[in-house]
Design a protein that fits this description.
Elements lengths: L6 E5 L2 E4 L8 H22 L5 H25 L3 E6 L4 E4 L6 E2 L5 E6 L9 E6 L8 E7 L2 E7 L6 E4 L1
Antiparallel strand pairs: 1-2, 3-4, 3-7, 4-5, 6-8, 8-9, 9-10
Length: about 160
């Protein structure tokens, strides 16, 4: 059965729905849009420009790639290779390359490594040996409640990312 709409037409060009078929006026729609904009403007800064899970995971993968590079260099060149991590600057580098790889703001880094590889309070290292082994350790990347651990096995030098 077809539903009938109540429509009044003053002229053939101007028709208006009446009764249950009546819609919203342009003014009502504009008021609702304005309220939504105000609510968005107030709530978005509360959640802020925090670090996304994607950024956190990308940073963990970047550190893992740096560790794997250092391990590969140690094996290929038959010498020790080192990844140096600066916690305060949220950056790392694979020595002797001077380029620092920086993590996004909002990511907190923690390093657990051998005492002999702590250069200062805020700088530490993970060393890899020609046989593929390492001093081992863990680098934790955290942003709020989310965190990723990059583990380095001391015996094999294997690097893995744990969520």
């Amino acid at each position: 059965m077809k539903e009938r709409r109540n429509v009044e037409c003053a002229t053939p060009q101007v028709c208006r729905a009446t009764g249950d078929a009546a819609g919203f006026s342009l003014l009502e729609l504009l008021v609702v849009l304005m309220l939504m904009a105000i609510i968005a403007a107030v709530t978005l800064p509360i959640f802020g420009p925090g670090v996304s899970t994607t950024d956190l995971k990308r940073s963990a993968r970047e550190i893992a790639a740096g560790l794997r590079l250092a391990r590969s260099q140690a094996i290929a060149q038959r010498t020790e290779a080192t990844l140096e991590l600066d916690l305060a600057a949220r950056a790392f580098r694979v020595l002797p390359d001077p380029r620092m790889h920086t993590m996004p703001e909002g990511i907190e880094l923690k390093l657990f490594t051998a005492q002999s590889d702590l250069i200062s309070d805020q700088v530490g290292a993970v060393r890899f040996f020609p046989d593929g082994g390492s001093t081992g350790g863990r680098i934790t990347l955290a942003a709020g409640e989310r965190k990723f651990d990059v583990d380095i096995d001391w015996l094999t030098g294997r690097v893995s990312i744990l969520e």
